[in-house]
Amino acid sequence: MKFLIVFVALFAVALAVSIDADATILKQDSDVGPVQYNYGYETSNGVSAQEAGQLLNAGSDHESIAVKGSYQYVGDDGVTYSVSYIADENGFQPQGAHLPVAP
């Protein structure tokens, strides 16, 4: 589960870097603690992301992290794409108008 959270965060950062290397950070904040965290940022090229996570069942055999977040970016076609997601014991669950929905 921790790998998934790190992967999602790195994906968002990689996406921001690949879209426009000359973009500047307009806003950035984070608060990381031992049982919860949150971060957010916004760049000059329309990329933004925010995420919050919390440790559940700390110290037990069922310890896990529940994450909720979102990100958006402007695609090559000029459309702003937005994705919101949760990641928990049920896996990574993204939602966005441009994403296919399971039947």
Strand element count: 6
Order of helices and strands: HEEEEEE
- Estimated structural class: alpha+beta
Number of helices: 1
Strand count, sense and barrel status of the largest sheet are:
6 strands, antiparallel
Mean pLDDT: 86
Q: What do you see in this structure?
A:
The relative contact order is 0.18. The chain is α+β, with helices and mostly antiparallel strands and 103 residues long. The chain contains 1 helix and 6 strands.
Question: Would you spell out the secondary-structure blueprint of this structure?
Answer:
Blueprint: H1 2-19, E1 25-32, E2 36-43, E3 48-56, E4 64-74, E5 80-88, E6 91-95
Antiparallel strand pairs: 1-2, 2-3, 3-4, 4-5, 5-6
Quick overview of this protein structure:
With 103 residues, the chain is of the alpha+beta class. It has one helix at residues 2-19, and strands spanning 25-32, 36-43, 48-56, 64-74, 80-88, 91-95.
Which key terms come to mind for this protein?
103 residues; 17% helix; 6 strands; six-stranded antiparallel sheet; alpha+beta
